Amino acid sequence: MPFCSLDFGLHFDPQQVARVLDFFATFILVCSLLVLATERRHVHVRIYALQSLSLAAVAFSVAFFNCERHIFIATALIFISKVIVIPVLLGRLMTRLIPQQPVKPMINIPSSLLFAAVLVLIADYLTRNILSAGHEFELARSVLTDSVGVVLLGLLIMIARKKALTQIIGFLTMENGLFLTGIAITAGMPLIVELGVLFDVLVAAFLMGVLLYRISETFDSIDVEKLTKLKE
Amino acid sequence: MIDAQFFFGLSLFLYLAGAVLGALWCLRPRRSYYVSHLLALAAGISGITSSVPVLLGQSPYHITIPWLTALSNVAPSIKLFENFSLQVDALSAFFVFVISLLVVPVSIYAFGYLREYEHKQSVALLGVLYNLFILSMVLVVTANNALFFLIVWEVMSVVSYFLVTFDHEKTENTQAGFLYIVMTHVGTAFIVLFFLIFYQQAGSFDFEAFRKVAANLPDLAKTLLFVFALIGFGTKAGLVPLHIWLPYAHPAAPSHISALMSGVMIKTAVYGMLRIFFDFLKPDLVWWWGLVLLGLASLSAILGILYAVTEKDLKKLLAYSSVENMGIILIGVSLAMIFSSYQTSTFAILAAVALIAGLYHLLNHAVFKSVLFLGAGAVVSQTHTRNIEALGGLIKKMPWTAACFLIGSIAISALPPFNGFISEWLTFQALLLGFNVPDLIVKIIVPLSAALLALGAALATACFVKAFGVSFLALPRSEHVQTAQEVSSSMKWAMGSLAALCLVLGILPTAVVRLLDGVTGALVGASAAASMGVNPLTLAVPSAKIVTVAPLGLALILLIVIPVALGVAYMAGELRTRRAQTWGCGLPKLSPRMEYTATGFSKPIQLIFKSIYQPRKEIEIETDVSSYVHKRIRYELQIESPFEKYFYQPVSAFVLKISAIVRRIQTGSINTYLAYIFIALVILLLLVR
Questions:
Q1: Which of A45, A95, B286, B402 has the fewest CB atoms in 10 Å of its CB?
Q2: What pLDDT sits at residue B500?
Q3: What pLDDT is stored for residue B545 in this prediction?
Q4: Contacts of A160 in chain B (CB under 8 A)
Q5: Which residues of chain A are under the pLDDT cut of 50?
Q6: What is the pLDDT of residue A137?
Q7: Farthest CA pair distance, chain A
Q8: To the nearest whole angstrom, how far is the Cα of B657 from the nearest Cα of chain A?
Q9: Does B668 contact A155 at a Cβ distance shorter than 8 Å?
Q10: DSSP per-residue codes, B423-437
């Protein structure tokens, strides 16, 4: 069955392909910034779904343009798990959580955006030498920058926000960044690896959801600051 | 011929089955308890069957663990597990024998002892842990790979920790457990270091590779190996000053477990030392190694018994006496090390004698200490107190237990014709053989050590006269004793068979020495049995002047003399029963308050050794009318161990202080922890770029 570009007899300029990938990757980075810039958790979940959709688009592009057939399967799996299952799961969880007072974040929105800018610069600085001119994946450099940036931003989300739900979003964002690296830079890891990672994320999201529900039941809040009580 | 290898595998399987079945039946605690102990009993018998042929001279056998080999075939990268095998040579067989020998009566005892724990839901767990505990000990003494040894060693430590804290409702038990697990892990850390150094030299964790590399070790490595082994195994052996956990941990466990812990678990440390010093490092032995061990062992022997004398807790007293006996065992071992370090054939025979003394005492201590612990368990199960000041008069209520405890006490006090006498006599003779050593410092230390051993033996007698006299004789001191009854028949038979074993080991030393000769012969490379067993009746020590002892002959003479003496006395009319009141200084009625207390009995000894005990006394006198009329006197005596005061307390205070500082970075907030990770990540990324 014809699937990818070569099956259709189409040949694309690698530069053009790189540009397409870059577009989606940048969108993923922007999504992470958006999470930092908003406070509403419903929005967070939707942004995550959007980010994942974008990730699926990257995967699809790699599969289509580079003719890596097994990536199609990965694309489908990303779509099902990250665009549909996890957001639905988190959405349902939110309806069950106890409504609560707004929690003041650890770092407020303007400063965290400032931090985010610094982190993106660091990501750029870090990746500049890795894929230098003449490298096989030279064209993927800006994608790599984006993905390292997404990972760092994911971590920043986890640090800067106190709500457990947002921390889950941060974790998932980080994981998306890692996936982006895997797909864009290596033109697809072996299918078994991707399957494993996807399954891990699914389980992690599920477990964290359950834990979150328990935390909210126990502490009447999902403010992780309250967990400091457990220290004693 | 008996297939020893088959029985060894069978016993391992039975222990495992006991643990698994016990766990599966945990909803039926009683059945689970019985099944697991029954399987342990069968495994013990099977273990004896498997070890005796090797002791009698059958060649050692190897057992590889099939599924581990299969695992290394599936995943070749797991090289480490490839050589996990068990080896039963003479030394291992001896320890398997001692373990199995105790497991049989202790398992029988456990059937009756269940009543003490019947109210507990977790009684099934006791059976499971019991089987795992014994299994791990058997594996420790047969492991043929350092990594495997460490794993089973750790399993043994952890399982015994759970047994120590089995009665976790009492805070003193959980505290004892904590102290135990901390100390045992300190010891394990040193054993790990020991094996890592060896691994670095040998390039393999296999014991076989250790033996090969031993002859050409650098000096520094040798010294480190000795020090680490001494601290590592010394902790488990309860060697002074690493003994502090022992008097707390052993009494806390259920009594039949205490018997196994004192009887065999601490002896796995002796196994470790023998394996290391005589199997791996024999060509490297340096004379001062043995001397250091001799000094510590003598110190343990005297201090252990000194603390036992003043102890009022019956099981704690026994635990302190274990420290003493481990000292005596290690005196034998250390002398063998000193003799072996001269690497000549004459000294090899002396080493064989010393090692036979040590191993003989090890066997004896295993037997009589279990009688005593089982007896103490019987007493505690009836009276629910371990304080001997609250006991008394039990001999009338529990004659069997009293008789067995008495035999155990005589044996541990090293009085003939019981077994303790023979082995302590041999140890003493081995010490006197130390005068043959050319080094002057050895000649100075040896008589000191002999004096300490003699003093220890005398104090042990005082200690057990007190333990037996105060708990079993005279009038009951408290209402705890009122309801006491003789224990069930399974407990009686268990104690009785061990007591009988005390006598057998005491009057048949030549046979035992011949059995031990195979073990020591393989280790020191010389046989001493021929020169020691002059004839079946007489045991001799090879030296310039032949010294002999003939316990069997002595027993036979006693067998004749005692009836004759009794007969003569009967004829003379001295044996007619005459009932009368004990003279009470003219007071109308004798009450338990007039009895000699345990504290009072040990007071003279406490006065003599005041500088060691450093007692803290508190006397409160309430007066009435005038200062000459005392209404009530309260006397409190506390003995503080100098090791705890001057070494362990400062160390633990220091650790706590450091922990308090480190704790500041542990805020408990998830965000902070993530920030730590984040900062570390960014810095590392920037650095490696």
A1: A95
A2: 94
A3: 62
A4: 671
A5: none
A6: 61
A7: 67
A8: 17
A9: no
A10: HHHHHHHHHHHGGG-
pTM more than 0.80: no
- Alpha-carbon gap: B675 to the closest alpha carbon of chain A (Å): 6
From the list A119, A126, A224, the residue facing B670 with the nearest CB is: A224
Q: What's the confidence (pLDDT) of residue B57?
A: 83
- Distance (Å) from the alpha carbon of A174 to chain B's nearest alpha carbon: 12
* In chain B, where the domains are located: 1-61+88-144, 306-572, 642-688
Report how many domains make up chain A: 1
- Chain B contacts of A159, Cβ < 8 Å? 671, 674-675, 678
**Cis before B241? omega within 30:** yes
The answer to whether B39 touches B20, Cβ cutoff 8 Å, is: no
A224 and B682 within 8 Å at the Cβ level: the answer is no
Burial environment of residue B528 by CB neighbours within 10 A (0 to 12, 13 to 18, 19 or more):
buried
Residue A9 lies in a domain: no
- The two tokens of residue A125 are 């600085």
Only one residue has tokens 């349902």, namely A92
Across the interface, of A119, A167, A227, the residue whose CB is closest to B668 is A227
Q: What amino acid is encoded at B650 in this protein?
A: P
CA dihedral B432, B433, B435, B438 (to 10 degrees): -160
Kindly report, residue by residue over B452-493, the tens digit of the pLDDT: 999 999 999 999 999 999 999 888 888 888 888 888 899 999
What pLDDT was estimated at residue A62? 83
Domain range for A219? 14-231
pLDDT at B77: 54
Residue ranges of chain B whose pLDDT lies below 50: none
Task: Output the pLDDT for position B543.
Answer: 64
In a domain, A7, yes or no: no
pLDDT at A203 (0 to 100): 80
